[in-house]
UniProtKB/TrEMBL annotation:
Domain Fe2OG dioxygenase: 191-291
Similarity field: Belongs to the iron/ascorbate-dependent oxidoreductase family.
Protein name: Fe2OG dioxygenase domain-containing protein
Coiled-coil zones: none
Source organism superkingdom: Eukaryota
Keyword set, alphabetical order: Iron, Metal-binding, Oxidoreductase
MF-aspect GO terms: metal ion binding; oxidoreductase activity, acting on paired donors, with incorporation or reduction of molecular oxygen
InterPro entries: DIOX_N, IPNS-like_FE2OG_OXY, IPNS-like_sf, Oxoglu/Fe-dep_dioxygenase_dom, Plant_2OG-oxidoreductases
Record Gene3D superfamilies: B-lactam Antibiotic, Isopenicillin N Synthase, Chain
PANTHER family for this protein: OXOGLUTARATE/IRON-DEPENDENT DIOXYGENASE
Length: 341
């Protein structure tokens, strides 16, 4: 299948091809007031603040996870140059020829490196205005051999992203009233799965009828996201869509389905979507952090209390959950709904 990037560059498109027209509903377009902004977490207070600062930021994490499932992290220590280099080398990958990228057009979900378009074109009723590169980078690191600097840059970026995620897992554990290493230990993060996902959203001639990614929740525990200067990410909050305008060099963080299962719904995964524009290419880069693929995730005993609060989800291997999500049309939290008790 032709990538969206190639479609834009090789065809003079006055309008969006019919297979990319997304069936928006009236409630899909309701935007929140401009005053609605996602919480901001100062990472330095979590890692090196005074006891009072750390206590305050843990409380802020609790509020962000309970009320939003989404927050912006500043003062995280990720070098700005590394973030710029990562976005640049990711763009360079998509600038390769279709033949060069085609080497990674994997057919299997768990291929170490996979290049494609839309989400899963075999089940997507409407195609999404999005090309993507997905790379499993932990516990075994993989990288395409082109561009030549992709391996070195992505390996360092993903290593640092894991370190940030581990500290955030500590903050989340403490915010739940548990030991700081609770999530890391319970979910076996040290040997857990880290998936690098690079999304490319080329300019669209009719952005009002197409979509980059439809409303969905992420499959893992925690996703860390950076993007270039172009907006497009929207988060569902209180029944409306909140457009996200991140501060320069901040990292956006959201809780995923496995976090909702683990905490038995105490912290819920958040529904979000990617809109497109007709001005320029937007690129975003996410690292999805989860347990080992073979790990059975189920509500932890600390969040289950017999008849008062029974387990709301059945246990399922993380690998099987990913297979379940990939076999279905990407649609809100329908995958999570399928394992509710």
């Amino acid at each position: 299948m032709l990538s969206v990037k190639s479609l834009v560059e090789t065809c003079s498109l006055p309008s969006v091809p019919s297979k990319y027209v997304f069936p928006f509903k009236s409630h899909d377009t309701t935007l929140a007031e401009e005053s609605e902004v996602i919480p901001t977490i100062d990472f330095s207070f979590l890692t090196s603040g005074t006891p009072e600062q750390k206590s305050n930021v843990v409380q802020e994490i609790s509020c962000a996870c309970r009320e939003w499932g989404f927050f912006m992290v500043v003062n995280h220590g990720m070098p700005k140059k590394l973030m710029d280099d990562m976005l640049q080398t990711s763009q360079s990958f998509f600038d390769l020829t279709e033949e060069e990228k085609g080497e990674y057009r994997g057919e299997q979900l768990f291929d170490p490196i996979k290049y494609g378009t839309s989400f899963n074109a075999s089940v997507d009723k409407a195609l999404f205005w999005r090309d993507h590169l997905k790379v499993y980078v932990h516990p075994h690191f993989n990288a395409p051999h082109k561009p030549s600097n992709f391996r070195e840059i992505s390996q360092e970026y993903c290593r640092r992203a894991r370190e940030i995620a581990k500290e955030l897992f500590k903050g989340i554990s403490l915010s739940l009233g548990l030991e700081g290493n609770y999530v890391e230990k319970e979910m076996e993060i040290e040997r857990g799965s880290q998936l690098l996902v690079v999304n490319l959203y080329p300019p669209c001639p009719q952005p009002e009828v197409a979509i980059g990614l439809p409303p969905h929740s992420d499959h893992g525990l925690l996703t860390l996201l950076i993007q270039n200067e172009l907006g497009g990410l929207q988060v569902q909050h209180s029944g409306k869509w909140v457009p996200i305008s991140p501060l320069p060099y901040s990292i956006l963080v959201n809780t995923g389905d496995q976090m909702e299962v683990l905490t038995n719904g105490t912290y819920k995964s958040v529904v979000h979507r990617a809109m497109v524009n007709n001005r320029a290419t937007r690129i975003s880069l996410g690292t999805a952090n989860g347990p080992p693929l073979g790990k059975v995730v189920q509500p932890a005993p600390e969040f289950v209390d017999g008849e008062n609060r029974p387990a709301a989800y059945r246990g399922i291997k993380y690998k099987e959950y990913l297979e379940l999500q990939y076999s279905k049309e990407l649609n809100g939290k329908s995958c999570l709904d399928s394992i509710r008790v």
